[in-house]
Design goal:
By secondary structure, the chain is α/β, with parallel strands linked by helices. About 25% of the residues lie in helices and about 15% in strands. The chain has one domain: 4-Layer Sandwich (Purple Acid Phosphatase, chain A, domain 2).
Length: about 350
Amino acid sequence: MGIKRFASGVIATGLLLGVFGIAHNVRADSSELHRDSEHEGRFQIGLWADMPYAKNGDDLKVAALIDDMNSTQLAFTVFGGDTKDGSSLCTDAAISTMPAALFNQVRVPTVYVPGDNEWTDCHRKNNGGYNVLERLSNIRQTMFVSERSFGQHTMELEHQGALGGAYSENTRWTVNGVVFIGLNVPGSNNNKVNAADCLSAKSVRTQIECDADNAEYADRNTHNLAWIKESFERAKQSGAAGVMLVIQADPGFDWPETETANERVTLAGFDGYTDLLNTLVAETQAFDGQVVLVHGDTHFFKIDKPLLSASNLLKNFTRVGNFGSPNLHWIKVMVDARSRNVFTFEPMLVPGN
């Protein structure tokens, strides 16, 4: 599948549906997952990412956002990466202690997906000049040591790797037949370092470390693709009608206005996502249900259909872009199997933010 086929479209609502659970169905604690009492099986979730950023003074705003989510009847929330800004130190507190405390302020189960500001970009001098693979290991050993999610009430997640180890951050859970996947796909080209991007006056990274980063990318990319394929296979076997995948990186979709040109090829630093997008295309085409990719990184709320092109629309694929600092808002997602689109996305603008 050539990457040149990617283009964009626009749609106002998302698409997902659930029937029977696959893999591990969510087992919540005594709070149970919030469902609409009048319509069995209907539930809401919250999406948020890219906050708080100290440089933007986000602390009060993120508190207001959490209060807003806590006042809404949600089944769970998913945080799509970047728990700090990209020009602050990657200390243990910044990438684990403080994010865990933040997520545990949320009343309902909250799933964390890592972002580039927590590890991929930590080699930069203004981030403290860390070894990025050591920072990734730290995140795994502190943020993914339990089978259960964060939040004041929790739910059980399936992890690709052993707890605290490699790929433990790749998660999966199911509610009413809708399959949700959390995947470690960060910004900065998915930690794939091209030759011209290794050495910089703004970084302490060495060529040896860049080579190690590329080996890490290749191995994680293989595991990510396997996790996606396995999740789709289980969804098909169980008759599930919806898959939602949450990552941090904006993989750089083509622009819709220029179908004869492919800006994604000419823009440097996006080849680390080509395998991911090609796999998503292939799996979506082979799946009868609806597929949603949620990402952050660009900090703009958007819902569209960017695959494959204006003349060859991949009808059952929807992209959702998260809000991000300095726009501290969130997205409410309603799941209703009786509606045509099943999943409807509503931007929640937090008063005062």
